[in-house]
Design goal:
This protein is an alpha/beta fold. It has 11 helices and 11 strands. The longest helix is centred in the last third of the chain and has 17 residues. The protein is globular, with a radius of gyration of 21 Å.
């Protein structure tokens, strides 16, 4: 029996609206040495039936069914446990792939010979298509040290690009590929940090074959329930083990995402918003105050205002003081 080169893991829950598009795009990427693992995470709609309908057209399709939902992180972990490929990649049930994209991704990984390869993606909103590039300042198509792509703290770097589906990974990385199953949102944040801190080699290539739907109702980025509190748990995992050299970046990363959540907090009930803000205040105050002030001072005015309203006793920024001193003189 031929060796499996690539395992694609697709977790989905109640995905009947878009799953056929996703699986049809996999049919246009199929190869005899590829396998496709759909993890039906306790769906109560027609997800299972749609997946079964594709068996004749999608060689290598396996459908794993969870009787009750376990969440995206553990659904991905279940897929990883079932995978046999030399490489693995991920896909969400409401996205789709360009024809032939997976073969190009494998070709890049085999040509570079590194632990993992990240790629660009296409963001989709209605009829609008925008290519989002992986934020690497170093040359593309070159094998690099993943730790070298975490800094600088002051700009967007590869740990700010956490999308598991935008890349391909050696399955021999094993535990580094597993997601923290305790999290039901933001599970990709500690995942990407650990990957960059502990893997040996990586590269970025200029491939944009994943079409990522934004603003999909029911997706975790759109819901406002208690799962959003796991954002704090995710960053507690990031901060727990991060080395001092990377702490300014982790604090800036956290503060930027906290400000983003505050901007869209209208989706929360008043009770949940109060709990979210309480956790936010606790976590900000647990961080080195100089790093928080530095991070906040580099934000857009609206985000800085939101964070200072949340934690009003934050010291003023030295950058603000400098501007004021100039104005006074």
């Amino acid at each position: 029996m031929a060796e499996t080169t690539l395992s694609l893991i697709l977790p989905v829950r109640d995905g009947e609206r878009f799953l056929a598009d996703a699986l049809a795009s996999l049919c246009r990427n199929a190869r005899r040495d590829f396998e496709f693992i759909v993890v039906d995470d306790g769906s109560v709609d027609a997800t299972a039936e749609i997946a079964e309908d594709f068996r004749p057209d999608l060689p290598g399709l396996t459908v794993v069914r969870n009787p009750a939902p376990v969440g995206l992180a553990d659904a991905r972990n279940i897929g990883l446990s079932a995978a046999s490929g030399r490489y693995v990649t991920f896909m969400d049930g409401d996205d789709w792939l360009a024809p032939g994209y997976l073969a190009l991704l494998v070709e890049a990984a085999e040509g570079l010979g590194c632990d993992f390869v990240r790629a660009d993606h296409v963001q989709v909103e209605g009829r609008k298509r925008v290519v989002h590039r992986a934020p690497l300042s170093a040359p593309r198509g070159v094998v690099l040290d993943p730790r070298g792509a975490i800094l600088p703290a002051s700009v967007r770097t590869m740990v700010d690009y956490p999308y598991a589906w935008a890349g391909i990974y050696r399955r021999s990385l094993r535990d580094l590929l597993h997601f923290p199953g305790s999290l039901h949102t933001a599970e990709d944040r500690p995942w990407i940090w650990r990957l960059h801190r502990e893997a040996a080699t990586f590269a970025v290539v200029s491939l944009a074959g994943v079409f990522y739907r934004r603003q999909v109702s029911g997706s975790l980025t759109q819901v406002g329930d208690e799962r959003q509190l796991h954002f704090f748990d995710a960053f507690e995992l990031v901060l727990k083990d991060v080395e001092p050299e990377f702490l300014p970046k982790a604090v800036r990363n956290f503060c930027a995402l906290l400000a983003h959540h505050l901007e869209i907090a209208g989706r929360f009930t008043p009770a949940l918003r109060a709990r979210f803000e309480e956790r936010g205040v606790q976590m900000v105050r647990s961080l080195p105050v100089d790093l928080v002030v530095e991070a906040v001072s580099r934000m857009a005015v609206e985000r800085e205002t939101a964070l200072r309203a949340l934690v009003p006793d934050l010291p003023p920024s030295p950058h603000i003081r400098l501007r004021r001193d100039r104005e006074e003189t």
